[in-house]
Amino acid sequence: MAGGCRLLSWSDLGIWTGFLLISAYATGTLYEHRERTIAELRETYYGLLQILSQFIFKDKYTQSHSYRVSFYATQIARQMGLSSERIEGIRAAALLHDIGKLELSREVLYKAARLTEAELAELRTHVDKGVQMLSPVGGTLKRVLPIVLAHHETYDGNGYHKWKGEEIPLEARILSVADVYDALTSDRPYRRGMSPFETRDDIVKRAGKDFDPRVVRAFESAFRSGPLEVPEALVYAS
Q1: I want to staple 213 with a disulfide (CB 3.0 to 4.6 A). Which of 52, 54, 118, 207 is the partner?
Q2: What is the pTM of this model?
């Protein structure tokens, strides 16, 4: 097909069904919480199937990025002492946070030059588009929507929706740091990635402005134990 897109094969269907069901499993929707009703499980399962046809990332980077961000975010959340349920919610939100980019043009996503104001406006729509795409999902996964919606907010209120400080869910503040850390350390067609230590220093400098200072301190603690090295099993080859 034009633009590098291709039809969904049965093998793709199996792979992505498995991926989405693993995401549901990670949030405790499947198997772990036996007290949850069969109706909720069914609602979540069919909601996942509704978005399956759209959940084909346009490149390996986006797919791998989501896995890495989920790892970083859960490490930060553990440093903050969050409950296992909230940590699993962050993990699921991280896996799904960029799904709205499926509806953006490749020209905007991979443009090497500076984006125009119109292109920046289109890029910012990926958050709301992602929430719209995930809205059919019921049950436990529905609780990740506020995290996905707010992951591009900044602590000082200059983000996409202009929420600030405690108005932003803590899970979204954690996801924001993890997302930026991976974005800056990754090589892209238009730039080389920064080193982990350079990126850490950059994030620390932005505490209180772009990022919650408490989250940054937890990020630093997680970094000292790594520095945030993703297990190979979670990394897809680019």
Answers
A1: 207
A2: 0.75
